[in-house]
């Protein structure tokens, strides 16, 4: 394995990528850096933040490198249904994992904040059961980044080496 490559918007995917790279004893590169320094076809792992169910950067990363696996980093809580949605939205053959990331509203671009505010007020109006946690995340942010979340990916990569 040559590198962990990541696409991060506000930093949590970068944090996961750096933690994973340290565990694997390989470098971590942003997608922009990797385009210059990781040769095409190398075996890599890819981590991308989720925007509207799409794993950002995955499409281009899987064209350029041989991805052993990829991880979607999002704010939703994990589950079988979420994985089905992500697999369907990203149409990839690369084994896909999920890592729960962080939402730091102060680090988002104006338009991104507006979009999340609109989703929040919709959810508040609908008052559907089970949406309370998401409403609170969209209002106050969250931080679920932790090393233990990487255990599934690490176990998978062990079987590959
Ligand atoms: C505009 C926007 C759209 C998002 N859409 C989703 C989504 O569809 N599903 C999800 O799980 N998380 C979504 N998120 C949450 C991010 O994927 C999550 O905060 C992630 O940890 C961000 O990674 P980063 O800190 O590396 O940018 C969205 C965040 C923003 C700002």
Q: Compute the gyration radius: what is it?
A: 16 Å
Query: How far is the N terminus from the C terminus?
Result: 9 Å
Mean pLDDT: 96
The CATH superfamily of the largest domain appears as Flavodoxin domain
Bound molecules: flavin mononucleotide
- What is the highest CATH level, the class of the largest domain? Alpha Beta
Q: Examine the coordinates and then state which fold CATH places here, giving the name of the CATH topology of the largest domain.
A: Rossmann fold
Low-confidence stretches: none
The tally of beta strands, per DSSP, is: 8
Whole-number count of domains: 2
What is the helical fraction, as a range of percent? Answer: 40-55%
Q: How would you sum up the global shape?
A: globular
Largest sheet: 6 strands, mixed
Q: Architecture of the largest domain in CATH?
A: 3-Layer(aba) Sandwich
Key attributes of the depicted protein:
161 residues; alpha/beta; 8 strands; binds flavin mononucleotide; six-stranded mixed β-sheet; two-stranded antiparallel sheet; 7 helices
Question: Helices and strands in order, then pairings?
Answer:
Blueprint: E1 3-7, H1 12-24, E2 28-30, H2 31-37, E3 43-51, E4 54-55, H3 58-64, E5 66-74, H4 80-90, E6 96-100, E7 102-103, H5 110-126, H6 132-140, E8 142-143, H7 151-160
Bound molecules: flavin mononucleotide.
Characterize the structure shown:
The protein has 161 residues and is α/β, with parallel strands linked by helices. It folds into two domains: 116 residues, 3-Layer(aba) Sandwich (Rossmann fold), CATH 3.40.50.360; 36 residues. The chain is 46% helix and 23% strand. It has seven helices and eight strands. Strands 1, 2, 3, 4, 5 and 6 form a six-stranded mixed beta sheet that branches. It has a two-stranded antiparallel ribbon with strand order 7-8. Helix 5 packs antiparallel against helix 6. The longest helix has 17 residues. It is globular, with a radius of gyration of 16 Å. The mean pLDDT is 96. The site of flavin mononucleotide has 23 residues, from helix 1, strand 3, strand 5, strand 7 and helix 5.
